[in-house]
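Reply to dn_fold:

You asked what the input looked like. This is it:
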Amino acid sequence: MYLTPQHILLAGATGLTGEHLLDRVLSEPTVCRVLAPSRRPLAAHPHLENPVGDLGDLLPQLNGQVDIAFCCLGTTLKQAGSQDAFRAVDHDLVVAFAARARELGARHLLVISAVDAAPEASLFFNQVKGQMERSLQAQGWPQLTLARPSLLLGNRAAPRLAEQLAGPLSRMIPGKYHGIEAQHLARALWRLALEEQAGVRVVESDELRKLGK
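and this is what came back:
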Protein backbone atom coordinates (compact mmCIF):
# COMPACT_ATOMS: atom_id res chain seq x y z
CA MET A 1 0.00 0.00 0.00
CA TYR A 2 1.23 3.50 -0.80
CA LEU A 3 0.79 6.57 1.38
CA THR A 4 0.38 10.28 0.63
CA PRO A 5 2.15 12.00 3.54
CA GLN A 6 1.25 15.66 4.00
CA HIS A 7 3.13 16.69 7.15
CA ILE A 8 6.87 15.99 7.30
CA LEU A 9 9.41 16.40 10.08
CA LEU A 10 13.03 16.47 8.92
CA ALA A 11 16.22 16.65 10.98
CA GLY A 12 19.56 17.26 9.30
CA ALA A 13 18.27 19.38 6.43
CA THR A 14 21.59 21.22 6.04
CA GLY A 15 23.59 18.03 5.57
CA LEU A 16 24.60 16.37 2.31
CA THR A 17 21.61 14.03 2.09
CA GLY A 18 19.25 16.24 4.05
CA GLU A 19 19.57 19.07 1.53
CA HIS A 20 18.56 16.78 -1.33
CA LEU A 21 15.72 15.29 0.69
CA LEU A 22 14.40 18.72 1.67
CA ASP A 23 14.30 19.78 -2.00
CA ARG A 24 12.50 16.56 -2.82
CA VAL A 25 9.75 16.80 -0.21
CA LEU A 26 9.13 20.49 -0.85
CA SER A 27 8.55 19.71 -4.53
CA GLU A 28 5.93 17.05 -3.78
CA PRO A 29 2.36 18.26 -4.42
CA THR A 30 0.94 16.13 -1.58
CA VAL A 31 3.18 17.73 1.05
CA CYS A 32 1.64 20.80 2.68
CA ARG A 33 4.03 21.27 5.61
CA VAL A 34 7.69 20.49 6.24
CA LEU A 35 9.00 21.16 9.72
CA ALA A 36 12.79 21.31 9.49
CA PRO A 37 14.70 22.59 12.53
CA SER A 38 18.30 23.52 11.72
CA ARG A 39 21.34 25.31 13.11
CA ARG A 40 21.37 27.83 10.28
CA PRO A 41 18.43 29.30 8.34
CA LEU A 42 17.16 27.47 5.27
CA ALA A 43 15.91 29.11 2.09
CA ALA A 44 12.33 30.28 2.55
CA HIS A 45 9.50 28.23 1.05
CA PRO A 46 5.71 28.55 1.48
CA HIS A 47 5.45 25.03 2.94
CA LEU A 48 8.58 25.18 5.11
CA GLU A 49 8.70 25.88 8.85
CA ASN A 50 12.32 26.35 9.93
CA PRO A 51 13.02 26.85 13.64
CA VAL A 52 16.68 27.84 13.96
CA GLY A 53 18.96 26.82 16.80
CA ASP A 54 20.43 23.82 18.55
CA LEU A 55 18.22 20.81 17.84
CA GLY A 56 18.38 19.58 21.42
CA ASP A 57 16.95 22.90 22.59
CA LEU A 58 14.37 23.07 19.80
CA LEU A 59 12.85 19.60 20.27
CA PRO A 60 10.44 20.56 23.09
CA GLN A 61 9.26 23.54 21.02
CA LEU A 62 8.35 21.56 17.91
CA ASN A 63 4.61 21.25 17.44
CA GLY A 64 1.89 20.48 14.95
CA GLN A 65 0.81 17.34 13.17
CA VAL A 66 3.49 15.02 11.79
CA ASP A 67 2.85 12.04 9.51
CA ILE A 68 6.40 10.93 8.73
CA ALA A 69 9.77 11.83 10.23
CA PHE A 70 13.15 11.68 8.53
CA CYS A 71 16.40 11.73 10.49
CA CYS A 72 19.49 12.63 8.49
CA LEU A 73 21.60 13.55 11.51
CA GLY A 74 25.21 12.44 11.66
CA THR A 75 28.73 13.61 12.32
CA THR A 76 32.25 12.17 12.31
CA LEU A 77 34.67 11.46 15.12
CA LYS A 78 36.92 14.20 13.79
CA GLN A 79 34.13 16.76 13.69
CA ALA A 80 32.75 15.73 17.07
CA GLY A 81 36.16 15.80 18.75
CA SER A 82 35.66 12.78 21.00
CA GLN A 83 33.82 9.48 21.21
CA ASP A 84 31.43 10.89 23.81
CA ALA A 85 30.61 13.89 21.61
CA PHE A 86 30.09 11.60 18.61
CA ARG A 87 27.71 9.37 20.59
CA ALA A 88 25.82 12.44 21.80
CA VAL A 89 24.89 13.25 18.19
CA ASP A 90 24.68 9.90 16.41
CA HIS A 91 22.90 8.10 19.22
CA ASP A 92 21.47 10.41 21.88
CA LEU A 93 20.22 13.22 19.63
CA VAL A 94 18.81 10.81 17.05
CA VAL A 95 16.90 8.90 19.74
CA ALA A 96 15.62 12.14 21.32
CA PHE A 97 14.47 13.40 17.92
CA ALA A 98 12.65 10.14 17.25
CA ALA A 99 10.90 10.27 20.61
CA ARG A 100 9.67 13.80 19.93
CA ALA A 101 8.51 12.83 16.44
CA ARG A 102 6.48 10.00 17.95
CA GLU A 103 4.91 12.43 20.44
CA LEU A 104 3.87 14.62 17.51
CA GLY A 105 2.01 11.72 15.92
CA ALA A 106 4.51 10.37 13.39
CA ARG A 107 3.87 6.71 12.59
CA HIS A 108 6.82 6.13 10.28
CA LEU A 109 10.43 7.03 11.05
CA LEU A 110 13.16 6.81 8.43
CA VAL A 111 16.73 7.08 9.71
CA ILE A 112 20.10 7.14 8.01
CA SER A 113 22.33 4.63 9.76
CA ALA A 114 25.42 3.05 8.19
CA VAL A 115 26.56 -0.10 6.42
CA ASP A 116 27.56 -2.84 8.90
CA ALA A 117 25.86 -1.11 11.83
CA ALA A 118 25.76 -3.49 14.80
CA PRO A 119 25.67 -2.92 18.57
CA GLU A 120 28.68 -5.19 19.09
CA ALA A 121 30.69 -4.08 16.04
CA SER A 122 34.44 -3.80 16.50
CA LEU A 123 34.53 -0.34 14.90
CA PHE A 124 33.24 2.39 17.22
CA PHE A 125 31.37 4.17 14.41
CA ASN A 126 29.41 1.05 13.43
CA GLN A 127 28.88 0.14 17.07
CA VAL A 128 27.22 3.47 17.86
CA LYS A 129 25.06 3.24 14.74
CA GLY A 130 23.98 -0.26 15.77
CA GLN A 131 23.16 0.88 19.28
CA MET A 132 21.16 3.75 17.83
CA GLU A 133 19.16 1.29 15.71
CA ARG A 134 18.50 -0.86 18.76
CA SER A 135 17.32 2.13 20.81
CA LEU A 136 14.92 3.19 18.05
CA GLN A 137 13.47 -0.30 17.80
CA ALA A 138 12.81 -0.19 21.55
CA GLN A 139 10.56 2.85 21.00
CA GLY A 140 7.95 0.62 19.38
CA TRP A 141 7.43 2.45 16.10
CA PRO A 142 4.52 1.22 13.94
CA GLN A 143 6.89 1.56 10.98
CA LEU A 144 10.65 2.02 11.23
CA THR A 145 12.98 2.16 8.23
CA LEU A 146 16.71 1.87 8.87
CA ALA A 147 18.71 2.94 5.81
CA ARG A 148 22.29 1.65 5.81
CA PRO A 149 24.20 3.48 3.08
CA SER A 150 27.84 2.86 2.27
CA LEU A 151 30.15 5.83 1.67
CA LEU A 152 28.09 8.89 0.72
CA LEU A 153 29.17 10.61 -2.48
CA GLY A 154 28.47 14.23 -3.35
CA ASN A 155 29.71 17.78 -3.00
CA ARG A 156 29.78 18.86 0.63
CA ALA A 157 30.02 22.49 1.71
CA ALA A 158 32.95 21.38 3.88
CA PRO A 159 34.70 18.53 2.03
CA ARG A 160 35.93 15.56 4.06
CA LEU A 161 39.41 14.43 3.02
CA ALA A 162 38.83 10.76 3.84
CA GLU A 163 35.69 10.70 1.69
CA GLN A 164 37.48 12.46 -1.16
CA LEU A 165 40.22 9.84 -1.10
CA ALA A 166 37.91 6.84 -0.66
CA GLY A 167 35.20 8.01 -3.07
CA PRO A 168 36.77 6.82 -6.34
CA LEU A 169 37.60 3.43 -4.82
CA SER A 170 34.09 2.99 -3.41
CA ARG A 171 32.64 3.33 -6.89
CA MET A 172 34.46 0.16 -7.94
CA ILE A 173 33.43 -2.02 -5.00
CA PRO A 174 30.42 -4.26 -5.74
CA GLY A 175 27.35 -4.90 -3.61
CA LYS A 176 26.43 -3.03 -0.48
CA TYR A 177 29.89 -1.46 -0.09
CA HIS A 178 29.64 0.41 -3.38
CA GLY A 179 29.46 4.17 -2.71
CA ILE A 180 26.08 5.85 -3.05
CA GLU A 181 25.28 9.34 -4.32
CA ALA A 182 23.55 11.44 -1.67
CA GLN A 183 20.85 12.49 -4.11
CA HIS A 184 20.11 8.83 -4.83
CA LEU A 185 19.86 8.12 -1.11
CA ALA A 186 17.44 11.03 -0.68
CA ARG A 187 15.30 9.76 -3.55
CA ALA A 188 15.30 6.25 -2.05
CA LEU A 189 14.23 7.58 1.35
CA TRP A 190 11.26 9.34 -0.19
CA ARG A 191 10.21 6.23 -2.09
CA LEU A 192 10.46 4.20 1.11
CA ALA A 193 8.39 6.80 2.94
CA LEU A 194 5.53 6.22 0.52
CA GLU A 195 5.37 2.50 1.28
CA GLU A 196 3.25 1.24 4.15
CA GLN A 197 4.95 -1.79 5.67
CA ALA A 198 4.46 -2.41 9.38
CA GLY A 199 7.44 -3.17 11.58
CA VAL A 200 11.16 -2.69 11.09
CA ARG A 201 12.74 -2.63 7.65
CA VAL A 202 16.50 -2.59 7.14
CA VAL A 203 17.54 -1.36 3.71
CA GLU A 204 21.14 -2.00 2.69
CA SER A 205 23.14 0.29 0.42
CA ASP A 206 22.80 -1.77 -2.77
CA GLU A 207 19.00 -1.72 -2.45
CA LEU A 208 19.08 1.99 -1.66
CA ARG A 209 21.03 2.64 -4.88
CA LYS A 210 18.45 0.74 -6.91
CA LEU A 211 15.55 2.58 -5.29
CA GLY A 212 17.23 5.93 -5.82
CA LYS A 213 17.98 5.64 -9.52
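The chain has a mean pLDDT of 91.
Hope that clears it up.
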